[in-house]
Specification:
The complex is a heterodimer of chains A (243) and B (200).
Chain A (H helix, E strand, L loop, with lengths): L21 H11 L4 E6 L2 E7 L14 E5 L2 E7 L1 H22 L5 H14 L11 E9 L2 E7 L5 E3 L2 E4 L3 H11 L6 H15 L9 E7 L5 E4 L1 H11 L7
Antiparallel strand pairs in A: 1-2, 1-8, 2-9, 3-4, 4-5, 5-6, 6-7, 9-10
Chain B lengths: L12 E6 L2 E7 L2 E3 L2 E4 L5 E3 L4 E7 L1 H22 L5 H14 L7 E8 L3 E6 L5 E4 L1 E4 L3 H11 L6 H18 L7 E7 L2 E7 L2
The chains are: A alpha+beta (243), B alpha+beta (200).
């Protein structure tokens, strides 16, 4: 870790004399301490995958870290997840506004830019703190799959495959070795599930892994059911073939 | 004389979809009541490389509307790194007109262009959007629509579409006192838009 200069890491986001924004760097550290999220692009579409810490008696249901923004766009979050909900709310408004004003579905980059702009504003306004999340924004633009990642500084970048959150360094290395744009959606899901295991400190269980896909043909986000995820998990440990 | 024609000039404007594009055309007369203010009014407007519009009604309102739409669409093209399709330009114009429904822009518009396919839309002053294969607006529209409706065919070529639009406007120029003094035409294909001016 770094030893910040006194007074430059308090409430106001201001430059330190050596040109750094400590509050933003701390927010990025929050993301590193969050749970893993993965996005993978392939020729048939995109896969979003999130690792979640679920308590034993917690009721199952919708994922806390996977969100649908529009029919054709989804978001996976890593970091301080309540912040992600606020950004997703804005993304949903932007997506519907684009349909209302321009009569066409918004592009994935459009959402990424909007959320990047929003994150940037919170590095500059007085009396606010930066967002503590990174988001993987994945979707299909007119049959072309796309993935973008935003971080607390407001930077957004496009990727073929990317992991954010805890253990993402190992997973990104793994993805760099294994990635192939020619994969099918099934192969991409398998790669995502396998990647979660690479990062996992705990034993990977289906209850902890949430997966969603967007097929370029249907252009619709679909959650992959837990029992199907379990099939992929078993297959990756050589127990059985995925269903 | 105290009719509305003292303040809102009449006009004839037509739009025709053909095989690989659209033709937008309007005559050039600007008449307030019995007085011809101008013989060179321009009622056809290119908006982007692949979209354009023709109008009837208050020309000032249309000029302001087109400038607004052009500015917003230019910014959107820079954001999306691609040309904006006619349906998007139309919807934007419709939103601007609907937002001002209590103090409306007094203009009817035919907006057309080439995106995935050639298409035209008719907008009224409150911003309703109606897609069509051919359309006519303005005080001369009853005359012009008779010509277009009787001769329009789907998959016409550019030459036939231009001739049909011209014939319709010539007909309305003969019988509508608010229309005449030549024709402005905008032809839009995948290669972009081309403007022509025809002296009658």
């Amino acid at each position: 870790m770094f030893a910040p200069q006194a007074g430059y890491d308090r409430a106001l986001t201001i430059f330190s004399p050596d040109g750094r924004l400590y509050q933003v760097e701390y927010a990025i550290e929050t993301v590193r301490r969050g749970t893993l999220a993965i996005g993978i692009k392939c020729k048939e579409g995109v896969v979003l995958c999130a690792e979640e810490r679920v308590r034993k008696l917690q009721t199952e249901g919708l994922s806390q870290k996977l969100f649908q923004v529009d029919e054709h766009i989804g978001i996976a979050a890593a970091g301080y997840v309540p912040d992600a909900r606020i950004m997703v709310d804005q993304a949903r408004v932007q997506a519907q506004n684009n349909r209302l004003v321009y009569d066409e579905p918004i592009e994935v980059e459009g959402i990424a830019r909007k959320l990047g702009d929003m994150a940037q504003q919170y590095t500059q306004y007085a009396g606010v703190r930066p967002f503590g999340v990174s988001l993987i924004i994945a979707g299909v633009d007119n049959e072309v799959p796309a993935i973008f990642v935003t971080d607390p500084s407001g930077t957004y970048l496009g990727y073929d495959a990317i992991a954010i959150g805890g253990g993402s360094d190992q997973v990104n290395e793994y993805l760099e070795q294994k990635y192939d744009i020619g994969m099918s959606l099934e192969q991409a899901i398998a790669l995502a599930v396998e990647s979660v295991k690479k990062a996992g400190e705990e034993k990977a269980e289906p209850k902890h892994i949430k997966v969603a896909t967007i097929d370029i043909k249907t252009k619709k986000m679909k959650q992959v059911p837990d029992d199907v995820v379990e099939g992929y998990l078993k297959a990756s440990s050589g127990e059985a073939k995925p269903t | 004389m105290s009719g509305i024609e003292q303040y809102i000039p009449g006009a004839t404007a037509v739009g025709v979809v053909f095989k690989d594009g659209v033709v937008l055309a309007a005559e050039k007369r600007l008449a307030l009541g019995n007085f011809i203010m101008s013989k060179g009014a321009k009622k056809v407007f290119p908006i982007t490389e692949y979209t354009g519009a023709a109008c009837a009604g208050m020309i000032a309102d249309m000029q302001v509307l087109v400038r607004n739409v052009q500015a917003i669409i230019k910014m959107r093209e820079m954001e999306l790194h691609r040309p904006i399709k006619p349906n998007s330009v139309t919807k934007l114009m419709s939103v601007i007109m609907f937002e001002r429904r209590m103090y409306p822009l007094l203009t009817q518009v035919i907006l057309g262009g080439v995106g995935d396919e050639a298409s035209i839309y008719v907008l009224d002053p409150l911003g309703s959007v109606i897609p069509d294969k051919y359309a006519v607006i303005g005080s001369g529209s009853e005359i012009a629509i008779g010509v277009i409706e009787s001769e329009y065919k789907e998959d016409m070529d550019e030459k036939a579409a231009k001739e049909l639009a011209l014939k319709a406007i010539k007909a309305s120029s003969q019988r509508d006192s608010a229309s005449g003094d030549g024709v402005d035409m905008l032809v839009i294909t995948k290669q972009g838009g081309r403007e022509e001016s025809i002296v009658l």
